[in-house]
Amino acid sequence: MRLSNFDINELTDWRHLLHRTPELSGEEEQTAARVFQMLAATGPDRTVTGLGGHGVAALYEGNAPGPCVMLRCELDALPIQELSDFDHVSETRGRAHLCGHDGHMTMLAAMARMLGRHRPARGSVLLMFQPAEENGAGARAVVADPAFADLRPDYAFAIHNMPGLAFGDVAVKPGPVSCASRGMRIALTGQTSHAAEPEKARSPMLALAQLMPDLTALAEGQPGQEDFALVTVTHARMGEPAFGVTPGEAEVFATLRTLTDDRMAALVASAEEMVQQAAAQSGLRCHITYEDVFDATTNAPEAFEIATRALDRLGVPHTPGPLPMRASEDVGCFGAQIPLAFMLLGAGEDHPPVHTPHYDFPDELIQHGAAIYSAILDEILSGTNNDT
Questions:
Q1: pLDDT score at 384
Q2: pLDDT value at position 223?
């Protein structure tokens, strides 16, 4: 399966259109509509919309029975103001595709074109355009959607571009590849008083001052070690901006991060106990909620082996690179259900990092990603690997 120069030009234009019109997690209605329109032109055997929100999936059936291989990308953009000046810059202030999800979608659009022309020898291919990756909600919502169970993929593969990694090289390894994380939101409630009579208040000041360093001190181990844990205090607020009132409430945000889900459960228990003790010592009520919850992502040995065989056949250099990442990826929810291989594709050692205002997905990576996906499909569905 190959892309023509005409394909590449059209796919690049489509990527630029997506980049100009970003939508945030859970709001990807227009993006999903564009994906559906693109897929329809390739003649999939089945298309499912509304998966886990605005998710879209297309199924391409092979010529004989066999496994179903899912290729997954993300629909959503980031709430960051883009500062680039190229022609396809975001048209929406404060929103931009600064993680490369527009490019990831275009890799799968390339696969849709190729699959529309040449079905696999056996099995089937599921192209999954997943919503809401950036807040950790999308993959979990897709997996929970009854329509996903009907699709029944047997393998899952996903590529994420990675600035700082040599262009076109791949980072992949078996086992843990990205951390579990969650945002811990702590509300402390006491009682205000006049600032002249602080003894009559139940102020959260001491608890707040204690919790910020104590939560951070729960960090343990080094990235890549099984006991790795990291707590980052990202926000704190106490009372109102006034001189006449002793504060009676406070709020703390902390991001908890671990290599494994089991370690996350232990870290959550320790952090919650710490909060409860600090609140009790100051006579405060505490309320804890969680947002942006990501499971750990773990590559299955069998999926890793398939991916590396495909990379070797293409002559693509691959190493563990920066894996496992401290950052989180919600594709791990799929990996908890089916064998998964998640890979990083180098965007260039000097390329601006993701989640920064001057980042843009390199268009030249579209062909590289599509070639890797195509080689993976050949490994599983070519008809010569019936034992896979």
A1: 64
A2: 86
pLDDT at 385 over 90: no
Mean pLDDT along residues 345-372? 98
Does residue 340 contact residue 172 with C-beta atoms inside 8 Å? Answer: no
Map tokens 């390339």 to a residue.
110
What contacts 278, CB < 8 A, 6 or more positions away?
207, 210, 211, 214, 286
Statement: residue 290 has pLDDT above 80: yes
Q: In which band, very low, low, confident or very high, does the pLDDT at 365 lie, cut at 50, 70 and 90? A: very high
Separation CA 362–CA 342 (nearest Å): 19
How many residues comprise the chain? 388
What local confidence, expressed as pLDDT, does residue 284 receive?
Answer: 98
- Report how far residue 299's alpha carbon sits from residue 173's, in angstroms, rounded to the nearest whole number: 7
Is the dihedral angle over the CA atoms 220, 99, 345, 362 positive or is it negative? negative
CB 259 within 8 A of CB 180: yes
DSSP string covering 226-281: TT-EEEEEEEEEES-S-SSEE--EEEEEEEEEESSHHHHHHHHHHHHHHHHHHHHH
Helices (H), the chain: 5-20, 29-40, 101-117, 138-144, 146-151, 205-216, 261-281, 301-314, 332-335, 365-381
